[in-house]
DNA sequence: CATTATGACGCT
DNA sequence: AGCGTCAT
């Protein structure tokens, strides 16, 4: 199976961390009365007691479920405490939870090699190197193992699990003494995770659950197996068995339409069943019956064997910021003014959060997007009024204003929206409004956009000399913080922000799929993907179009005059020369005098 | 009238 | 650029 030395060398220790009923924990920290009693967090308690978006384990045990109405929860659990999400600008405001999450993942980031925040209350960690280091010193490992309280090679707290699960998780599954197995890496990782969880609890008061395995998919799969406040390890030796009986929809990525199609049309019950479809067959399914998308085939053939090569990135800040509100039934918006009223409100929140992103993460947005849903239209057919379901959703984007305050954001959004909201939309009513900021770029200056401009200037000019290097955004130097005692041994400084590479599930490396289901080692040989197996010719012809992107050159209308004025004269020259080279002289000259008008 | 708000990312 | 899918 997978216990080759090669597999062990390359095996990673990847962790999925998941805050337990997080909104409830946040509310409980603010109001300890809520501790130990069934309680739930709802938003908008006016209608039927509000919608439940988080619930305590006491409430869950009483049959309360997420998405229930507060009133329905009271039926099954009369003594439930309902807490309402704060409201600002006439909408639910999740700031409190976002910030609480940040505090948690800052701790995680400090204590792990890599921390990738994936939502308000979840993150992946890669602690491979830390685990290896710990393994290299057995005495140290044993000492910290004792301190951590982690049990290795024994059955742990699996009261709620069935026999099948008990066999898979923990029971005799880890042999830390054996340096050659992937299990010892996970054993060391388990100790480190326990320490991280203790640090989070200590610094923030919050508890979390974690899954520990060799890749993102597997760690996520098991992180919730022992909630709350427990960690679960999944050995590579148990993966094949686990997947063979795992309902397909329970695996990340198969919970939606794709999973439904595979279940309905291919009579696949368990993840392991997918193994009987070779890569070829999956591809043919994609081509012939449109059950799967062609580019999903490679990913699927790996996933069903427990393989997931996606790396853990280093990022705790969001890549986009958005806020929105739905307007159901009679509250749907039926006039432009009404829409503007709410765009104004949403803009206030977005502006605040953008300011926060700038202060906290040095992020500056380049793009604003507005999207809306418009209600189902009623159409007359054969004299009958027929209600066409399926709401229409639209989105438009525009450049983010240089000073993204609420007024400017609202102005920019309304400008694109007014063209869109025709009488048709207004008659049907707007049922949903979202605005968001994306293309967040990392800057170090106070002056908004100046680094971006410099980057553009430099990339537009051909040569990149060493002397230019100071123009680029520097990764923050890792502060050599002094730590003492045990903490020193497993903590790391915060990792700097790194923009992600664009991932592609199928066309990435890692395509070879072995037949031994337990093998979760990374495959790095680049083999033909489904795509070029079947579309070699096509992919060649499209390559020049899609995969090779020429960077946009700087044009006058991209240059903000206030930004330009701040540049050293030497750079002003550079900017001008870079622009002159691509524009007709006349146009350039004319614009130079008029360029106070921005696009 | 009622599963909200918010992310990430793939496809075209 | 805009739309669709998946997740919680």
From TrEMBL:
Q: Does the keyword Cell inner membrane apply?
A: no
GO: which molecular function terms? damaged DNA binding; DNA-directed DNA polymerase activity; metal ion binding
- Database matches in InterPro entries: DNA/RNA_pol_sf, DNA_pol_Y-fam_lit_finger_sf, DNA_pol_Y-fam_little_finger, DNA_polymerase_eta, Rev_trsase/Diguanyl_cyclase, UmuC
> What are the protein's UniProt keywords?
DNA damage, DNA repair, Magnesium, Metal-binding, Nucleotidyltransferase, Nucleus, Transferase
Q: Where in the cell is it found?
A: Nucleus
Q: Residues in domain UmuC?
A: 14-255
Q: Name one GO cellular component term.
A: nucleus
| Compositional bias per record (Basic residues), positions renumbered to this chain | 588-599
- Composition bias, kind Polar residues: at what positions? 505-514, 578-587
* Region of interest: Disordered: 493-522, 576-599
Q: Name one Pfam family in it.
A: IMS_C
GO biological process: any one? DNA repair
What is the protein name given in its UniProt record? DNA polymerase eta
Species, as recorded: Aplanochytrium stocchinoi
